[in-house]
Write a structure and sequence with these properties.
Layout: E1 5-11, E2 13-14, E3 26-27, H1 33-50, E4 56-64, H2 72-85, E5 87-98, H3 105-113, E6 118-124, H4 128-133, H5 140-152, E7 158-164, H6 171-183, E8 188-193, H7 201-207, H8 216-232, E9 236-239, E10 242-244, H9 253-258, H10 273-279, E11 284-287, E12 292-295, E13 298-302, H11 306-314, E14 330-335, H12 338-349, E15 357-358, H13 359-366, H14 370-373, H15 375-383, E16 387-391, E17 399-403, H16 405-409, H17 411-415
Parallel strand pairs: 1-4, 1-11, 2-3, 4-5, 5-6, 6-7, 7-8
Antiparallel strand pairs: 8-10, 9-10, 12-13, 13-14, 15-17, 16-17
Helix pairs in contact: 1-2, 1-11, 2-3, 6-8
The structure holds iron/sulfur cluster.
Iron/sulfur cluster binds near residues 23, 64, 99 and 122.
Length: about 425
Amino acid sequence: MTPDTSIYIHIPFCKHRCAYCDFNTYANQEDSIPAYVNALINEIEFIGKQSPQPINIHTVFFGGGTPSLLSAHQFDSVMRALRAAFIFSPTAEISTEANPGTVTLENLRGLREAGINRISYGVQSANMEELRMLERAHNFFDVIEAVTNSRKAGFDNLNLDLIYGLPEQTLQTWKTTLARIVELNPEHISAYALTLEHGTPFGRWSAKGLLPIPDPDLAADMYEYAEEFLASKGYMHYEISNWAKNKDEGKRMKDEFKNTSSLIPHPSSFACRHNLQYWHSLPYLAFGAGAHGYANGYRYSNVLRIKTYIERLSTFQPSTFNDFPLSPATVNQHKQSVEDDISDYMINNLRLIEAGISDSDFKSRFGRGLRDVFPQEVEELIRDGLLECKTSEVLKTSEVYRLTKRGRLLGNQVFVRFV
Ligand code: SF4
């Protein structure tokens, strides 16, 4: 049986390009949004026709960039094209990223009507100085307003994204940010450490010594504080950088997770089902400029530039492209070997704090046990206290491998052993 599939849609428009950002996004090109939406619809229709069998969709994610620069009508057009091309689960999770300050109550109501049922806001910090330093256009009042209006519009599944380890950030400002975020009562919180990417102004300023480099020890203290604080507020730490609430407030989420399969998010948790698709190395289709996908044995990605993407989707000969899920916009494609799939599986699944890697799932995918494939690596990582092996609480006969607390702080040292 084909596993349920996910869809990622990239919206590469931003009002301003923030100095730390290396995403595929462009400022001052909003005039191209109508043509871009048409190109997206063309790509969706094309892939829908190319698929060798009907495809069941259980999550969609509009990421960016700033998807909230699209109107509710434009979201609706894309959603209609998706529903016409694929079979949607009635309980599909349909998320969009949005920037606080770019949404109104009316616009949010329109998104809800278009079928969007989860919003992920790029908050980053509650501290004005830190937001200014990141060159973000919003302030914390915009965040409060966006959350309040989202609730009024009927959204009961919100994520707030944060960044820590910022230059000159203190443990105290981070604590204040977390406290303010929790007061807003989001269902889900993501917290990622700042990375200084090459090719960004932050990367260049840092290389020239113009930007104080974030202290890794302080960033580790911030991460550990987030783990303790969010747990005390009822958020389950289910992935290295992600926390979610339980839908049943009366019950501790940790207990809920214990009673579920390691592969399926418990229906009572607000864990992001779309991202779990990535972390479980399950298939997702990609639409839009620079979007990356994984399906039918391919990892593939689309052309980066907006103009080229629009051109490719308006002037193609359908007969020239027939290998699903590649489209006229695809510029990179790689047929995965078993070894590629195993490496990706390890790196993705180890990010899951509770679920980790189930040996029975590994065997069902690859025909061998984890220790048969990586005997030395697993033994050494366990010896070094970076990995732990427990008997599965669901499948009593199977083992589950997880990062230890120390392993979570030194994740890259673990992942590199499986590449
Ligand atoms: S708003 Fe987000 S996607 Fe756009 S430039 Fe800033 S960080 Fe990047």
